[in-house]
Each structure stands twice: as C-alpha cells, then as structure tokens.
Design goal:
binds zinc ion; 52 residues; SR1 protein
C-alpha cells in the first residue's frame, strides 16, 4: 500500500487562517488538492499531518 488517507491541518503564514483537509499521502508527499488561502497566498503555509 503506497496510498494512505490522512487528515492535514494547513495554516497560512500570511493571515493565520487555518484549514483542515483530507488528503492522501503518496510516497512521502501529501496531496490535499489545496490551492490557495483566502488571502491569495499560494506558497507560505505550515502543513501538519493530523492523526485520524
Ligand atoms: Zn492567508
């Protein structure tokens, strides 16, 4: 199994908005489909995997 479902907490380092998303972990990378924050920030995030 190389795919596992994870929950991911994303915090925007620009405005501080938090998002909790479901994603998939694939070969050490987490894919959530998250594109950008409400403040149009697309790059500067703190991403944490949350235990399900
Ligand atoms: Zn933001």
């Amino acid at each position: 199994m190389s795919l596992s479902r994870v929950k991911v907490a994303i915090r925007c380092n620009i405005c501080g908005e938090k998002f909790v998303l479901r994603g998939r972990r694939e070969k050490g990378k987490i894919d959530t489909g998250f594109k950008q924050c409400l403040c149009n920030n697309t790059l500067d995030f703190e991403i944490q995997e949350v235990a399900l």
